[in-house]
Amino acid sequence: MIRHAQSENNALWARTGSSIGRSSDPQLTDIGQQQARHLGQHIGKNWWQADPDNDSHNRKGFNFTHLYCSLMVRAVATGTAIAKKVDIPLVGWEIIHETGGIFERDHEMDERIGLPGPNRAYFAQHFPHLVLPDSLGEAGWWERPFETREQAMGRAKLFLEELQQRHEPGDRVAIVTHGGFFVAVLRTLFGFATLDNEEAENRIWLHAHNTSITRLNFSEKQVDLVYLNRLDHLPTELIT
Predict the structure, then answer these.
(1) How far apart are alpha carbons 227 and 230 in whole angstroms?
(2) DSSP state of 215
(3) How far apart are CA 216 and CA 228, in angstroms?
(4) Cα dihedral 74/75/80/81 (nearest 10)
(5) 120, 92 Cβ separation under 8 angstroms
(6) What is the predicted pLDDT for the residue at 197?
(7) Pseudo-torsion of CA 127, 133, 139, 142, nearest 10°?
(8) Of 53, 30, 7, which is closest to residue 177 (Cα–Cα)?
(9) Phi and psi dihedrals of 126, rounded to 5?
(10) DSSP class of 27
(11) Which CATH fold would you assign to the domain 2-238?
């Protein structure tokens, strides 16, 4: 699981501690673009020597068999930096989007209003290499109300089910996703989602810095969290 590089909204929050002025689907910042390049170079340089049985920390390489990204621009741009360095397609997978979806926030009314999001023509123009879902047409891919916390947790469970359905043992799957969804998936996997309420859940926080890499191994008996939030590829000044 790879978190996207720094977005304009990440930088806004870091500067102001506020979401006022946020974008519904932000681009990467200059720092984010640098992070994405370092990430792509790191994965590309450490690619072909992967040995899943004797290299649990990927010191010898990654060699993903599949590479997915969400349909949010910051994830597509980060995934593109990887895809440019490796010989596998970048595939859009809608279900791994950030919690909430594509929305704008009305601070006066304290409402979150769902927006359409980019459509097929947008991606064809800006990310022509991206393999898009057949269902995506001229309407935006989101085009629905704001997603609630409960819906996001249900989507994390559905993602894990779809992951098992799509892939065979031995597949090495990379997803370029988002901080909120990353937390939802890990809470679902390790039972934190059964806590009674959101306040109780937030006592257990799972960190994913921009472009961090987290590895999970799935077997019939268990799920292993092999490593979390690794940033070996970034110089200190680019960690956000």
Answers:
(1) 7
(2) E
(3) 9
(4) 80
(5) no
(6) 56
(7) -90
(8) 7
(9) -95, -30
(10) P
(11) Rossmann fold (3.40.50)
Q: What is the largest CA-CA distance in the chain?
A: 56
Distances 61 to 49, 170, 171 between C-alpha atoms, Å: 5, 15, 15
pLDDT at 51: 63
The rounded Cα 38 to chain-centroid distance in angstroms is 17
Given a contact cutoff of 8 angstroms between Cβ atoms, the answer to whether 140 and 116 are in contact is yes
b or e along 96-125 (b: 16 or more beta carbons within 10 Å of the residue's beta carbon)? bbbbbbbbebeeeeeebebbebbbbebbee
Give me the amino acid identity at 103: F
Q: 2 with 78: CB under 8 angstroms?
A: yes
Q: What CA dihedral angle connects 30, 72, 231 and 67, to 10 degrees?
A: -120
Say if CB 104 and CB 113 are below 8 A apart: yes
- What residue ranges do the domains of the chain occupy? 2-238
DSSP-based three-state secondary structure for 90: strand
Q: Which amino acid is at 196?
A: D
Give per-residue pLDDT as tens, 72-125: 999 999 999 999 999 899 999 999 999 999 999 877 777 889 999 999 999 999
Q: Which residue do the tokens 């890990």 mark?
A: 186
Structure confidence by residue, pLDDT tens digits, 121-165:
999 999 999 999 999 999 999 999 999 999 999 999 999 999 999
Q: Judge if pTM exceeds 0.85.
A: yes
Total residue count of the chain as it appears in this document: 240
Closest CA relative to residue 29, chosen from 86, 73, 70: 73
